[in-house]
């Protein structure tokens, strides 16, 4: 790992474990991109960049050298207005209304470690020896704009992070109209684009399509990263699959509206840009002021999509997630939402805890409905005071009743919201996002608190802190159930109204930092109607996310498979729920629901008190098995084996870091008539070792099957062909000797 600048060729070489990222200064001014991909030694870095004269429609900046055109130069941080007609990474408007700018190299600095980003989540290092960073200072002297491009390369992860700090060094104000996190011109366009799309209850389905001329864009304009399109995009070589081929990943550490675009120009260069969505964004920079972009995490793998995912998994699990729970096993929980919805009281919750204890569960989560007059979703958000009708002796009493059953206690909040029917709204009608004279559009009968305001943030931090400090609450579910409309703030001046959405995000991050650092022993799980804000920004504050409101085992195969493209297993909440399933009315066996949910942070979300003795016995077995397998599932390496998007079955596996233990989960979603024999080629094992393979649910009934790692990886594991739909099996593999 290291960053080397060669003054002769004016090249920068960022070397990761097995990747190289190379840039070159052209005419000592323009920062050109040379290579991002497999690691090279760099024997002639200065000779790699090819520049060719095109036509007058790609003009040159220098009348004496028509070879160089910014329109065809592969660039690191493209501008608008000075002869590059492709999509820019930034745009600035001056007081005189002009929007032309050009950034020229000024200086650079290479240093050990990785800087934090002011007010924003980002990957981090614990010791300076884990990373090296590079700041490249670019300036537009004519207008007094400085952009510091920051790059970090890691010792232990094949990832490169990029971010930009914009500063007004002049003496006139300017407005950033576009302030993205990076630009990158890859020198060919033979790519497929892969991204994660969906909607509520159908999040992060995988889509793959060839790039074509022009722009391929994914974005959110919803004020949150959204269910619809995740802030992630991959470019894949045409032949790339799970295990082979080149895969580039681009992931944004941000939870608000974003844009990612791959634009193929007429000469086959692919320009990738990513950052805060410029749509309805601007940021006023007074002289001396700075603006920090979010961080983008760029990953290259020559080992296909799976290789790319495992780089993200390890980096995000160990150097994005933080806090005491980063490396701790996550508790098995029972959540009362699908068990009772709003219809509960203290006795009912205690009954759930009593059965929970009998079954071996570790945490009871009280979901929506414990505060204000919240008997349905029409009121009370903002009134974070216990409903003494439901919990007559208050929260401390309920918590101790649950704790007496040896379950920890967790509580749901939706702290970014306010119901029009609430005391908070009646007292402070201007505390929500709104535009004077316009309708305040409600969604789920609620409005969004204006987190760009310090007074709103202070109020929320105080009320949440009071509750968390009042009794031993071990877990918080932080929900957020709508997207932004009428984005405006009562406190911002007209010229800063378009800053509201990003100021909201900065405010949210400030609140999360204050609350999570005040309660370091509390496990926080984020949620936004399930996975509407499943993004790296939220994971920085809360190491797990409720993956989806869809708890159907079949739907979960796709949702969890898609989510695993970027996000580690330890970040995915997954619960067994009742049948017929509340979202799709499908009935699947308890075994399959258990196996799907055990492939994440395991829990239950149904009324345990209605279980038969036989069901209780089955759940006890699931819970005991998960406790045994939990380290492997939550912290092992994850391999996708068979895609639920492609056939009638699905499979994945977890392998311990030392390769001595593995778990394979196989799901037959639909039975096929007279189906061909199926073999699952396993991954990540040691070819030269033997593994004992058995059905994890019934180890005592198993015959001893021993296979070589090479047999299992190159020939495959025989999986059953069952009659009937919705069947599944977990295979536990233990290395011999
Ligand atoms: C949406 C969440 O995703 C659900 O799990 C639940 O907490 C409800 N909100 C409660 O209103």
Q: In DSSP terms, counting alpha (H) and pi (I) runs of 4 or more, how many helices?
A: 12
Question: Helicity, in percent?
Answer: 10-25%
- In percent, how much strand structure appears in the residues? 25-35%
Overall pLDDT metric = 97
Q: What is the radius of gyration?
A: 27 Å
Q: Write out the CATH superfamily name of the domain at 83-319.
A: alpha-galactosidase from lactobacil brevis
Bound molecules: (2R,3S,4R,5S)-2-(hydroxymethyl)piperidine-3,4,5-triol
Total strands: the figure is 39
Give a concise summary:
The chain is an alpha+beta fold. It has twelve helices and 39 strands.
Verbal overview:
With 737 residues, the chain is of the alpha+beta class. Among the domains are: 83-319, Beta-galactosidase, Chain A, domain 5, CATH 2.70.98; 641-735, Immunoglobulin-like (Sandwich). It is built from twelve helices and 39 strands. Strand 30, helix 10 (590-598) and strand 31 form a beta-alpha-beta unit. Helix 6 (454-470) packs parallel to helix 7 (500-518), helix 9 packs parallel to helix 10 (590-598) and helix 10 (590-598) packs parallel to helix 11 (613-635). It is globular, with a radius of gyration of 27 Å. The model has no long low-confidence stretch (mean pLDDT 97). The structure holds (2R,3S,4R,5S)-2-(hydroxymethyl)piperidine-3,4,5-triol. (2R,3S,4R,5S)-2-(hydroxymethyl)piperidine-3,4,5-triol binds next to loops.
